[in-house]
Amino acid sequence: MDKYTAQAATTAEAIQKGLEILGINKENASIEIVTEGKKGIFGFGKKYAIVIVEKRLVDEEKTNEQKKTSTQGYSETLTGDTTIRARKLEEETDESDMSKNQVVQDDDKALQLVSDYLVDISSKMGIETTVTTDVNLSDRQVVFHIHTENAGLMIGKHGRILNALQSLAQVLLYQQAKTKFTVIVNVGDYRERREASLKNVAERTADKVVRTNLPVFLEPMPAFERKQIHFYLSKNKRVTTHSEGNEPHRYLVVEPLK
Q1: In whole angstroms, how far apart are CA 115 and each of 10, 104, 110, 168, 249?
Q2: pLDDT tens digits, residue range 222-231?
Q3: pTM for this structure?
Q4: Is 74 helix (H, G, I), strand (E, B) or coil?
Q5: 191 touches 198 (CB < 8 A)
Q6: pLDDT given for residue 57 in this prediction
Q7: Share of residues in the chain with pLDDT > 70 (%)
Q8: Are 217 and 226 a contacting pair, CB within 8 Å?
Q9: Please, how many CA atoms are within 13 Å of residue 233, restricted to the half-sphere of its CB?
Q10: Considering the domain boundaries, does residue 63 fall inside one?
């Protein structure tokens, strides 16, 4: 483990927790404070501190990383900088911004362009794939199904590679197609399994919040997954949800409805 998101009553305690989990000292760590802790008054307004603690690579390790040309090396790059860019695009790019670089063409051609893009980037990762599309015109939604024998590599740790590809495909298709589709990129039944998992997380978190009468801070996740949990809990009259933090470490807070 090279990175850990730590939560504690104070910033100092959260940092120390992260250092202990990673087994490093402060000099060998890169620390990002997502949110400061607050004591509150008589138990009200209390807020936990959340920090991102990451191991620093020494110069020799950095040089070795730069020399990597394997699939693993490319995957790590994709789950790093590309994920950050993809999530920023997902969060910050609105219709007016996208339209500035828009090249509108026939929907079928645009869908094929995005399919080819997904195959091409997979090939650069050393993974052989084919892509099929499932278009729902009434909902303006398109699913790009990636077929491969290396599903795990395409999905990545915690779905990071697949999420990055989905965000980039969304922007590319928005710029190219006449119809403004919502894009889903899927491998096997990963999205279905992930959706079931998020629903379970939402229900368990809501139960905990109601039982303890304290807020729960979830791990950082992409915007479309946060929206899913928002949706699942929107009809729950006992809790409320909101997002805090900055991308790519933006996270969801579930708290008692006052």
Answers
A1: 47, 17, 9, 12, 29
A2: 888 999 999 9
A3: 0.60
A4: helix
A5: no
A6: 62
A7: 77
A8: no
A9: 29
A10: no
Determine whether 124 is exposed, middle or buried from the number of CB atoms within 10 Å of its CB (0-12, 13-18, 19+). Answer: exposed
Phi/psi class of residue 239: alpha, beta or left (left: φ > 0; alpha: ψ in -120 to 50)? beta
Give the residue from 188, 207, 222 where a domain finishes.
188
pLDDT of residue 2: 74
List beta partners, residue 254. Answer: 216, 241
Phi/psi region, residue 195 (left: phi>0; alpha: psi -120 to 50; beta: rest), is: alpha
Closest C-alpha among 217, 158, 144, 241 to residue 187: 144
User: Within this chain, do residues 148 and 201 fall inside the same structural domain, yes or no?
Assistant: no
- Is 140 within a domain? yes
CA-wise closest residue to 136 among 176, 95, 107, 96: 107
Q: Token digits for 15? A: 């940092």
Q: Domain count of the chain? A: 2
Where residue 158 sits, what CATH number does that domain have?
Answer: 3.30.300.20
**Phi, psi (5° rounding) for residue 47?**
-140, 130
Q: Which domain holds residue 182?
A: 102-188
Contacts of 134 (CB under 8 A, 6+ apart): 142, 143, 145
DSSP letter, residue 111:
H
